[in-house]
Amino acid sequence: MLSTAGKSGAMLEEDPDQTYENVLAEIQSFELPIEATLRSVYDDQPNAHKKFMEKLDACIRNHDKEIEKMCNFHHQGFVDAITELLKVRTDAEKLKVQVTDTNRRFQDAGKEVIVQTEDIIRCRIQQRNITTVVEKLQLCLPVLEMYSKLKEQMSTKRYYSALKTMEQLENVYFPRVSQYRFCQLMIENLPKLREDIKEISMSDLKDFLESIRKHSDKIGETAMKQAQQQKIFTVTLQKRNNVKFGKTMYINDRIPEERNEVVLKHAFEEEDENEEEVLTVQDLVDFSPVYQCLHIYSVLGDEETFENYYRKQRKKQARLVLQPQSNMHETVDGYRRYFTQIVGFFVVEDHILHVTQGLVTRAYTDELWNMALSKIIAVLRAHSSYCTDPDLVLELKNLIVIFADTLQGYGFPVNRLFDLLFEIRDQYNETLLKKWAGVFRDIFEEDNYSPIPIVSEEEYRAIISKFPFQDPDLEKQPFPKKLPMSQSVPHIYIQVKEFIYASLKFSESLHRSSTEIDDMLRKSTNLLLTRTLSSCLLNLIKKPHIGLTELVQIIINTTHLEQACKYLEDFITNITNISQETVHTTRLYGLSTFKDARHAAEGEIYTKLNQKIDEFVQLADYDWTMSEPDGRASGYLMDLINFLRSIFQVFTHLPTNSSDHAAMSGKVAQTACMSACQHLSTSLMQMLLDSELKQISMGAVQQFNLDVIQCELFASSEPVPGFQGDTLQLAFIDLRQLLDLFMVWDWSTYLADYGQPASKYLRVNPNTALTLLEKMKDTSKKNNIFAQFRKNDRDKQKLIETVVKQLRSLVNGMSQHT
C-alpha cells in the first residue's frame, strides 16, 4: 500500500491530469484500498483535492451520460415486455379460475375416499397398537398385580408377607419387564420399602417395649396372684389330707381344729370360682410385634442387629424396673409395685425365651436374673432397714415369699431371697422387740402394784385361764380374796405369748423344718425375756416414783413370772411339736432374767430404805450443849422406828408357797432389816463424829444414848423373824460400847484392856474415842470457867487430859504400825 501511494505521488508530479485519471481508475477498480489512494491526493499538494473533485465530477457526468444512453437503448424492449406481460396476465387469471374450479370439483369428489382411507389407516394402526399393548400388558399385568398386592400388604401392615412378595418380584417378575421405566421405578422403590418396613416394625417394637414397661406391674400382679392361689390350693389340699388321715398341724393353735373343714371347704370353693378366670401372659400382652419384627429382620438378614437391640433395650428397662422409689419403705404398696414390676419383666422374658428361637437364651436370662437378684437384695436390705413397724416387715416378708415362689415357678433360682429373709427375720425380731418394749412399758405404767382382788369364781377362772397360777390354799379361801401378784403379771404373760405368735408368723412359708422353727421361736423369746423385758423391769425398778411397797410387789411378780416360764416352753412345744427333751432344743432363759430383776429390786429396796433412813436422820435436831437429857427418845427416831416396823410388815406378803420361796422371802426381809439397822447405826455414829460438830455435852450424850436404846429395843423386838439371838442388835454394838465408855467413864478399863480379845470395849476405836472426847473436853472448858477453883473439877480436867494423851499415843501407835 505504501508503494502504491508513492507511485501516485510521482505521477502527480509528472502529469497531474493523468494522475487524477489513474486515481479515479483505482477507485473504480474495487481492488485496491481506497484510503491510501485518497490520502495521496490530499497529502501531496495543497489544493490538489479541488482539482481532484473537478475531475471526479467530470467523471460522474460521463457515467450519467452513458447510463442514459443505455436506458434509451433498452427502453423499447422493456415497453414491449410489459405489454406482453399484461396480455399474459389476463390469460393467467382465466387459467387460475379454471384450475381452481377443477381442484374444487376434484376435492369434492375425493373427500369421501379420503375419509374412508383415513379410517382404514387409523383402524389398522389401532389394531396393531392393540395387539402390541395386549402382548405387553400380558407381560406386565402379573408384575403390577404383585406390586399392588405388595402395596395392599403394606397398607394392612402385613410386613412379613410384603417382604416375601418383594422377593418374588425381584427374582421372578422384574426380570421379564426390566426394560420398562415403571419397572425401574419399582426396583428403585423396593429398598425404600424395606427400610420403611424395618422402621415401622422397629417402631412397633418400641411401642411394644413401652407398653410392657407400663403394664409390667399388671402382668406381675396377675402372675403373683396365680402363684399365691396355687400355693393356697396346695397347702389346703395338704391340710385336707392331714385332716383326712387324722394328722394335726400346729401352725396357729388359735384356730380351732373343728373349723379346719370349714376353712378347707371355703378355700376349695374359691379355687373353683377362680379356675375359669386364670389369665396367661398372652392374654394380657400382644407379642405379635416381637414375632413380626424378629421375622422381618430374619428375612432381611439382620437378625443379629435386632437381637442386640432387643436385649439392650430390655436391659435398660430392667435397670429402670430395679430402681425403687425413694419412699418405697413407707408402705406395703410401694414394695408390692416394686415386686410386681420385676415379676412382670421376667415373666415376659420367660415367654419370649420359650416362643422364639435365639432372641432370648437361657444364658442371657440367667445373667439378667443374677444381675437383678443382686440389685433386689441390695435394695431390700437398704429399704427394709428403715422399717420400724413389725406389721410392715411381716407384709414385706409375705411379698418376698410370693415373689420368690412366683419366679421359682418360672425356673429362676431364688435361694438367695430366702437367705435374705433370714436377715430380715432378725430385723423383724428387732422391730417386735421394740414394739413389745412399748407394750411392757404401758403395762407397767398402768399397773397399781397391788394384789389382784377377786370377788367371784368367774373372775378367778378368767384369770387362771390366761395365766398358769396354782395355789391350793388360795383356792380353798372364800371370796372375796386376792391373788398375790398384780395385774401386770397375767398381762405380761399374755403379751409374751402374743410375741411368740407374732414371731411364728414370720416363720411360716419359709420352707423350714419344725426343728428350725422351734429354734427360731425359742431364740426370739429368749431375746424378749433377757433383753426387752429385763430392761423394762430394770428401768421400772430404777424409777423414782416406785416406792418400797411397789418394789416388794415387783419381787412377788417376778417370782410368779419365773414360775410361768415352764408353761411358755410347753406353749412353744405345742406349736412346733418339738419335744423339750430333744438334744438341740434351746432352753428359755427367763429364770435368770427374773432372778436378775428380783435381785435388782432387792438392791433397790435396800437403797431406798437407806435413803428413807437418811431423810429421817436429817430431821434430827439435837442440842449438843444440853446439860440434862429430856428423859425420852427423840421424836424423829421414834418416827423412823415406826416407819421401819410398818415397812418390814410388808415383807410378810412376799411369796412363801414353797420352801424355796419362803427361804428367799425370809432372806430378803432379814437382809433389808440388817441393812437398815447397820445404816442407821452408821448414820448415828457419823452424826457424833461430824467435823462440823465442835462440842458435845454429857447431857447430849445421855440423850443420844436414849435414842440408841430405842434402836436396840427395836432390834431386839424381832421386826423380821428368822434372826438368831441378838444378831440384829450387833448392828448397834459399836455405838453401845462407845456410849457405855463415856457414860460410865471407864477409861481405866478401856486403856488397860485395849487390844485384848475379851475387852469390854473391843469395838471402840481409839481414834473415835479421841474425837468424841476432844469435843467433850472443849465443852468442859467452856462451861467450867471457875473449874480451877474446885478441886474435883480440876482433877477431872487432868484426867481428861491424861486420857487424851494416852489415846493419842494409841492412835499414833496404830498409824505407825499401819
TrEMBL record:
Q: Which keywords accompany this UniProt record?
A: Exocytosis, Transport
Enumerate the InterPro entries for this protein.
Answer: EXOC6/Sec15 (IPR007225), EXOC6/Sec15_C (IPR046361), EXOC6/Sec15_C_dom1 (IPR042045), EXOC6_Sec15_N (IPR048359), EXOC6PINT-1/Sec15/Tip20_C_dom2 (IPR042044)
Presence of keyword Iron-sulfur: no
Which Pfam families does this chain map to? EXOC6_Sec15_N, Sec15_C
Give all residue intervals belonging to the Exocyst complex component EXOC6/Sec15 N-terminal domain: 55-224
In what residue span(s) does the Exocyst complex subunit EXOC6/Sec15 C-terminal domain sit? 417-775
According to its UniProt entry, the function of this protein is described as: Component of the exocyst complex involved in the docking of exocytic vesicles with fusion sites on the plasma membrane.
Q: Which family does it belong to?
A: Belongs to the SEC15 family.
Q: What is this protein called?
A: Exocyst complex component
Which species is the source of this protein?
A: Odocoileus virginianus
Chain's gene name:
EXOC6
